[in-house]
Amino acid sequence: MPNKLTEKLAQSKAKIKEKAKKFKPKLVISKLRDGGRVGARRSAWSILGILLYAYFGWSVIEILLLYILLVCKLFVALPFIFKYTPWIQKNMVFLPYVRWPGTVDFDDPQGSCDLPNTRNVYVATEPGVRVGVWHSLPGSYDQQPAAGRAEHAELLLEH
Fold first, then answer.
1. What is the pTM of this model?
2. What is the Cα–Cα distance from 83 to 77, expressed in whole angstroms?
3. Given this model, what pLDDT does residue 121 score?
4. Domain boundary pick from 69, 93, 117
């Protein structure tokens, strides 16, 4: 029995090696843009330049200076600010100022979020620190008798 298993394992390894040798990536990162809107950004910059020149009366030098200023801000200043300010990074990633959805009552997940078999539990991790946790049980939990459910819940909370 172990012989068959090791033979099968060796065969599958050989197949994987053959497939790896034949593998050729179909898409190159630089070619990903070919399928999309070609020239859309260039068109937008051109239209902006034409509007500034024709409608607002800007000179070509002023338009070029504006483009240089925008490029410096977008590709130099903003990445530099983002890299060296952890407060901005934290707020852009975790969005603590966004209150969505506004009607959630975290103490009652069954009522406010329509999550059956879910309850709110607070766990003390350190002295003075309580972490709120939602404990969700599978749908089969509803079919158990009430006595079995209480026993099961006690076991889960003890561990």
1. 0.40
2. 10
3. 87
4. 93
